[in-house]
User: Which sequence fits this backbone?
């Protein structure tokens, strides 16, 4: 994530340098105006507040399981129960195949990834509403909150991923797994970065839109749960290859969902199931993420200046 | 002295009322006019002056309108004004919590704002963790906080509790800790909203002391909002009065306070019966007050030690006649709004005589020292508030010769004089 922001920072760097120069001539260090220019995103300022970001991350982690008996164990119980439920409903009752991979492994892989995405997304989309109290009293780059969010969710994701690996090893020892690592598993860090970027991008756009009209928030909270069904979590993407809708392969439509290529690549890399979606789709997803994030940051930056009047 | 902060034509428009489909319609119209027709925001024109108590035509008000002033480096400026005059909005703009509608603020140096103590405290985290959290929110870096940690803990006086979650703290301790962090902030410009009015007396003294050190010793620029005139007078060198969102006056602090307080008296030209800013159920309503000497002559000012009469007229309702208990109090406050004298019919009986329509207090030797005082009227009927008006009238007192020996009293002693002699 940091790497990505330093990239962004570089691209804005030259503009910022010009700005600083103009200011030093007048010797004003702070100028407060009704509106900044559209692309006046102060990434340098965000970097100055990196300590705050790390403290937010720490706070999110510490306070999440305070005064619970099981503590971080809840991070494991939740996906475990979800997977059992999927096995009964989608595997048992609906009888949807899982590309020859053991059901628990297949569902667990999808759930871990999706949970991280969904969790980041919902938390980020509530940024303004949840933090109105602090935002109304002190100024700091508002983007610090959603960024910290994405990072603190990594802890939970890491624990769930560990669970996945344990189950994976167990199956490997039993020997009937039919799942194996391949080179594509090395893409994992990039995949997580893409998930985080997408969640952050969508989240900050939604949060910017919901400061005044809360309708979107209501709509959005159930849209996220519907979105999961448009992503191959509980079924393999390979199932859609032979399906057509108005002459278009459903497979293609599915891949237009930027989360699909990420999840599929993850499953292919770790479980070897299905086919690789292809670099084309993966790059599409990556570009989608970058554009969305850039757009999100611009919109967010615009809204943060006076959101206190409308929230 | 170079300028530290410059306000250029700052205005801030707020929309009143609820967010509804009406707001959406306005937003669409605004968007259409600005972005499609390329014209000015239509709602900027219909904004009204911000007068809290009168009913307006438009949903839009100017919380601030055309504020234009400069603050020099090292100045400590007190911003005073009535509730809703725009003081907090001004500080919010300066601390970048929200953006102005028009105009520009320019400043030299880091701006630290203290609109609330303990912002971002999380109840589940320990005092120490919260110091870091709060410090970082206020713009300090981790090493900066670590360097000052001991000092902060010491200043807060919460050492014993420092590793306990703050949800176990008393509210006073929470405030102490919050202020301790804020007090160790090192910005060139400090913006403070009424936060000193918290904590116990010992801590308030400490807080004001710290504020004085900050402003005097270290030459920092401070903007301070408060209703506590004593604190303002102690801390600030200059003052600014905001009135209904406009800059009413700016100057040195004593003339500013004087002007602010005398502004409040404008009301004494209105008949008391017409005053709207009053509370109570109206079982009894004050209609007039007369302050005279013993010969019934109303005077501009009185002498210390003069015999005076205060006559308070009132209208009564049926309920007052049946009431088992009724009383009228007069509070006499000094300009800092501390109550100096209290007179009450309660000390002489449980009931007023409603048929008389007035009560008269006779004060044989006025014990108020040289100065100007505000008079508040208060009435209670059957233990319910009947009428309460603050600052109905002003009382001016000059020192002439209270002790009858021609000696002049040194200025700036206590607000009351004592009848005594020397043997």
Assistant:
């Amino acid at each position: 994530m940091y790497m990505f922001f330093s990239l962004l920072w570089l691209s804005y760097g030259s503009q910022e340098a010009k700005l600083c120069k103009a200011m030093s001539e007048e010797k004003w260090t702070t100028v407060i105006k009704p509106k900044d220019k559209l692309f006046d995103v102060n990434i340098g300022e965000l970097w100055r507040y990196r300590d705050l970001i790390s403290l937010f991350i720490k706070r999110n982690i510490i306070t999440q399981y305070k005064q619970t008996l099981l503590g971080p164990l809840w991070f494991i119980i939740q996906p475990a129960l979800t997977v059992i439920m999927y096995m009964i409903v989608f595997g048992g009752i609906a009888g949807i195949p899982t590309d020859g991979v053991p059901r628990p492994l297949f569902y667990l892989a999808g759930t871990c990834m999706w949970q991280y995405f969904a969790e980041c997304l919902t938390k980020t989309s509530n940024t303004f509403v949840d933090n109105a109290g602090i935002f109304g009293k002190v100024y700091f780059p508002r983007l610090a909150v959603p960024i910290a969010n994405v990072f603190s969710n990594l802890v939970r994701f890491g624990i769930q991923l560990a669970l996945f690996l344990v189950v994976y090893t167990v199956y490997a020892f039993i020997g009937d797994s039919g799942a194996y690592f391949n080179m594509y598993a090395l893409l994992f860090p990039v995949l997580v970065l893409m998930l985080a970027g997408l969640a952050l991008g969508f989240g900050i756009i939604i949060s910017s839109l919901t400061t005044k009209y809360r309708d979107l928030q209501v709509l959005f909270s159930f849209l996220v749960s519907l979105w999961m069904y448009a992503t191959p979590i509980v079924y393999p993407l390979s199932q859609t290859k032979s399906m057509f809708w108005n002459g278009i392969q459903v497979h293609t439509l599915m891949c237009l969902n930027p989360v699909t290529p990420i999840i599929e690549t993850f499953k292919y890399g770790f479980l070897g199931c299905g086919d690789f979606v292809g670099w084309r789709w993966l790059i599409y997803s990556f570009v989608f993420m970058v554009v969305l994030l850039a757009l999100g940051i611009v919109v967010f930056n615009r809204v943060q200046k006076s959101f206190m009047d409308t929230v | 002295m170079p300028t530290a902060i410059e306000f250029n034509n700052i205005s801030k428009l707020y929309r009143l009322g609820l967010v509804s489909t009406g707001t959406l319609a306005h937003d669409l119209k605004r968007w259409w006019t600005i972005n499609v027709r390329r014209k000015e925001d239509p709602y900027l024109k219909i904004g009204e002056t911000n007068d809290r108590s009168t009913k307006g035509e438009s949903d839009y008000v100017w919380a601030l309108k055309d504020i234009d002033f400069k603050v020099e480096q090292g100045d400590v400026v007190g911003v005073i004004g009535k509730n809703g005059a725009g003081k907090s909005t001004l500080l919010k703009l300066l601390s970048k919590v929200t953006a102005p509608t028009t105009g520009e603020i320019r400043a030299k140096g880091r701006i630290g704002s203290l609109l609330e103590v303990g912002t971002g405290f999380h109840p589940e985290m320990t005092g120490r963790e919260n110091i870091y959290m709060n410090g970082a929110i206020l713009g300090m870096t981790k090493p900066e906080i670590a360097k000052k940690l001991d000092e902060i803990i010491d200043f807060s006086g919460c050492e014993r509790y420092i590793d306990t979650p703050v949800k176990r703290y008393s509210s006073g301790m929470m405030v102490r800790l919050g202020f301790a962090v804020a007090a160790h902030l090192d910005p060139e410009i400090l913006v403070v909203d009424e936060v000193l009015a918290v904590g116990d007396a010992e801590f308030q003294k400490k807080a004001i002391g710290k504020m004085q050190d900050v402003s005097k010793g270290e030459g920092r620029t401070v903007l301070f909002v408060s209703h506590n005139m004593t604190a303002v007078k102690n801390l600030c060198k200059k003052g600014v009065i905001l009135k209904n969102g406009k800059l009413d006056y700016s100057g040195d602090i004593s003339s500013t306070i004087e002007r602010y307080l005398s502004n409040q008296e404008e009301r004494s030209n209105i008949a008391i019966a017409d005053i709207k800013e009053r509370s109570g159920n109206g079982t009894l309503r004050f209609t007039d007050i007369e302050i005279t000497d013993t010969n019934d002559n109303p005077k501009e000012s009185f002498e210390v030690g003069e015999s005076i009469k205060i006559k308070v007229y009132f209208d009564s309702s049926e309920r007052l006649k049946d009431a088992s208990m009724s009383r009228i109090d007069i509070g006499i406050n000094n300009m800092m709004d501390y109550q100096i004298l209290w007179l009450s019919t309660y000390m002489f009986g449980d009931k007023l005589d409603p048929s008389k329509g007035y009560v008269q207090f006779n004060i044989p030797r006025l014990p108020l020292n040289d100065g100007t005082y505000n008079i508040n009227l208060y009435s209670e009927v059957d233990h319910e508030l009947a009428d309460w008006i603050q600052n109905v009238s002003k009382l001016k007192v000059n020192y002439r010769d209270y002790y009858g020996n021609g000696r002049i009293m040194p200025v700036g002693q206590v607000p009351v004089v004592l009848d005594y002699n020397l043997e």
User: Anything to note?
Assistant: Chain B has a mean pLDDT of 82. Residues 201-217 of chain B form the longest helix (17 residues). Chain B is about 25% helix and 30% strand.
